[in-house]
TrEMBL record:
MF terms (GO), sorted A to Z: transmembrane transporter activity
Protein name (Swiss-Prot/TrEMBL): TRAP transporter large permease protein
UniProt topology in membrane: Multi-pass membrane protein
Protein location: Cell inner membrane
Transmembrane segments: 32-50, 71-90, 110-132, 153-177, 189-212, 233-252, 297-318, 330-350, 362-381, 387-406, 418-442
The TRAP C4-dicarboxylate transport system permease DctM subunit domain, residue ranges: 12-436
Subunit structure: The complex comprises the extracytoplasmic solute receptor protein and the two transmembrane proteins.
Alphabetical keyword list: Cell inner membrane, Cell membrane, Membrane, Transmembrane, Transmembrane helix, Transport
Family, similarity comment: Belongs to the TRAP transporter large permease family.
InterPro entries per record: DctM, TRAP_DctM
Source superkingdom: Bacteria
Assigned GO CC terms: plasma membrane
Amino acid sequence: MIDPSTIGLIAFAAVLVLLALRVPIAFALASVATIATFFIFAFRTGTFMPERAIRATTSLVYSNSFDLIHSYDLSMIPLFVALGHIAYRAEITTKIYDAAKVWLTRLPGGVAMASVVGCGGFSAITGSSIACASTMGRICVPEMLRMGYDPRLATSSVAAGGTLGSLIPPSVLFIIYGIFTETSISRLFLAGVLPGLLTLAGFILVIGIWVWRNPAIAPVGDQVFTRRERMKAALDAWPALLLFLVIVGGIYGGIFTATEAAAVCVVATALIGFAQRKLTLSGLWESLKETCIQTSAIFFIAAGAKIFVAFIALTGVAPTIVSTVTAAEPSVIVLMLAIALIYLLLGMFLDPIGIMVLTLPLMIPLVESYGLNLIWFGVVVIKLLEIGLITPPVGLNVFVIANVVGREAPIDRIFAGIARFLSVDIIVLGLIMAFPIISLLLPMGM
C-alpha cells in the first residue's frame, strides 16, 4: 500500500503536469484530488475495495465544494467584480486617469505617470489586475504612442501599473487568500494599502528617472490646460475617490464589513452612473452578464481548490513537509527567501489564482509553524503574485497589453521596458519582508 503522503506528492506533481499541458486549473485540481482521494479510500484496508471508496470520495467532493460556494465571504467576489464592470461603463474608472493627465501632461513623462496613477485608481475600484491592464491599455497606450512616446515606456508603464490591482483594495486575490487561510479579509484589504501606495510611488519614480536620463522617449505634450480645466478634471474624479473612501474608510472605521462595503458601492456606483447619464439599462445588463461569466470562472477555480485542500489534509503531506523543514532548522530569512523563489518561479508560468490555490495548502502550515503573521504573509504572497504578472516568459499583463496594442509594440519590447519596474517591485518586496509594520500598521489600528 502506498503511503498517503506519497500519494499527495504524486498528485501535486500531476497537477503541475496538467497545468503545463494547459488544462484549466479548476479541472486539474478537482480531477486529480478526486481520483487520488478515491485511491486512498479504496486501499485503506490494504486491498483494493472500490465500493468502499465511492461514498467517501463523493462526500468529500460534495461537502467541500458546497460549503465553499455557500460561504458568506465568497459573496463579495461577484459584488466587487460587478462594481468594476459597472464603474467602467459609468466612466468612473477612467476619470482618475483623465484628471492625472490634465495635471501632469506638461511634466516629462507626465502621461506615463498619469497612466500609472490611473491604473492605481482603477485598481482601487475593480480589484482585478488583468482587467486594469486590458482597460487602461486601450485608453492610455494609444494616447502615448500618438504623442511620440517610446513604445517601451508606453506599454511597460501600463503593464506594471496594472499589477496594482493585486495589492490595492479591493483585491480578488486577497479575498481568496482570506477564505482559504481563514483570516480577516477586511484586515487583508487594509494591509495592502500602504504597500500598494509604496509600489505606485516607486513606479512614478522609475518613469521620472527614465525620462530624465533620456528625454527623447517622452515628448512633452503641446496641449495647455487652464487652471479652471484642471480643477474641473479633479472634481470630475469625485465618484472614484468616494468609492475608495467608502471601501477603505468604512472598513477601517468599523462601519462596514468588506462584503457590506462592496454591496454599498455597487448600489452607489449604479446610482451615480444613472444620475450622470453615463450608465444605461443596457450597459447595466451587460455589466451583470460579464460579472456572471467572470465570477463563475473564479468560483470553479475556488471549488476545485477547496477539494484539493481537503485532499492534501487527508494525505498528511503538509505536516510531513513541516516536520522535514523544521528538522533542517532554517532561519526565518532562509525560509522566506525559499518561499519567494518558489513563487517567483511559478509566476513565470502560471496565473496568480492558480499559484495561490496550488501552494497555500502546503505553505500555510509551514508559515504557522514558525509563528509568522498570516496577514503579513498574505501581503508578501500577493506582492510575489503581482511580480509574476510582469515576469517573463509568461507575464499575463504583458500579453494583455501586447494583444491590445498589436504590432506597434512586440512582446520583447514590452519586456525590455518592464525590467525597470521589476526592480522597484523587488525593492518594495524586500521592504515588506524586512519591515512587517508597513503591512500591519493599518490593520493594527482597525
